[in-house]
Amino acid sequence: MPFELHPAPTPTRKPEDNYLQTAWKERIYPMAEKLGVYMKLPTVSPYPYTNLAFQGLEFAKDHRKGNEYNDAVFRAFFQQSRDIGRIDVLADIAKEVGLDSEQFRAALDTNGSASLQFPP
Question: Going by C-beta distance under 8 Å and a sequence separation of 6 or more, which residues neighbour residue 111?
């Protein structure tokens, strides 16, 4: 089940911070190597919020592309350092896995605007 590590409005981390540099060196890279998974510390700074990516996952699931979309989002962020907090990036990912990027974008624009408003 997907979940957000740092839901808005909690500040997200920056890859140039010592904490992430150390964590990746000591824990993430060794684990990824052991599992045979290529990962690199994303350079997007600060890290994006993932609310829209999760909304995109629901759209993808509704169109029977949930697994493909999920894998593509992880590759985009953890291998290609793409900003998965941006609708245009997510729409490109949706298209890459065979989803209609305009329908995808419309679903996120409609759903995203309401979910990103925070109480005063």
Answer: 55
